[in-house]
C-alpha cells in the first residue's frame, strides 16, 4: 500500500522539503470526523497535516511537484479502490467475479 511517507522518501530532496514546509504532525482522537463529503479539501493527512491550498499553489508553480503529488494521491486512491472491490463483490456480484485491480498498476 502506498503511503505519503513512502512517496516522500522517493521524492527529490528539494521537492520533499518544499512539500513538508506546508505540513505539521497531528493526532486525532478516535471517532473524529476529519472531512465532509462534497466539500473542497483544505487539508490532507498521513499523520502529517498539509495545507491543501498552499500545496495546490505549489503544484501549480512547479509541475514536477504537481506530478509527484498527483501520483501519490492516485496511488492512495487506487489502493483504497482495490481494497474496497472485494467487499463490493462479496456483497453484489456472483461468486468468483472479476480479478484484483493490482494487475493494472
* H/E series: HHEEEHH
Mean pLDDT: 80
Which strand order spans the largest sheet, edge to edge or round the barrel?
Answer: 1-3-2
Give the termini separation: 12 Å
Total DSSP helices: 4
Query: Which geometry do the CA atoms define?
Result: globular
Helix and strand composition category: mainly alpha
Helix content: 40-55%
Question: Can you walk through the features of this model?
Answer:
By secondary structure, the chain is mainly α. The chain has one domain. The chain has four helices and three strands. The protein has helices at 4-10, 13-20, 52-61, 63-92, and strands at 23-25, 43-45, 48-51. A three-stranded antiparallel β-sheet has the order 1-3-2. A hairpin with a 2-residue loop joins strand 2 (43-45) and strand 3. Helix 3 (52-61) crosses helix 4 (63-92). The radius of gyration is 16 Å and the shape is globular. The protein starts with a helix and ends in a 13-residue tail after the last helix. 9% of the residues are buried. The mean pLDDT is 80.
Brief summary:
Helix content is 52%, strand content 10%.
Strand and helix layout:
Elements (H helix, E strand, L loop, with lengths): L3 H7 L2 H8 L2 E3 L17 E3 L2 E4 H10 L1 H30 L13
Antiparallel strand pairs: 1-3, 2-3
Structural descriptors:
single chain; mainly alpha; 4 helices; 3 strands; 52% helix
Amino acid at each position: 500500500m502506498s503511503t505519503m511517507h513512502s512517496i516522500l522518501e522517493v521524492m527529490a530532496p528539494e521537492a520533499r522539503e518544499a512539500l513538508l514546509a506546508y505540513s505539521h504532525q497531528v493526532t486525532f482522537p478516535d471517532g473524529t470526523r476529519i472531512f465532509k463529503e462534497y466539500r473542497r479539501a483544505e487539508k490532507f493527512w498521513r499523520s502529517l497535516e498539509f495545507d491543501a491550498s498552499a500545496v495546490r499553489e505549489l503544484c501549480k508553480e512547479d509541475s514536477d511537484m504537481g506530478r509527484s503529488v498527483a501520483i501519490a494521491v492516485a496511488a492512495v486512491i487506487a489502493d483504497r479502490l482495490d481494497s474496497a472491490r472485494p467487499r463490493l463483490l462479496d456483497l453484489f456480484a456472483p461468486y468468483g467475479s472479476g480479478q484484483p485491480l493490482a494487475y493494472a498498476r
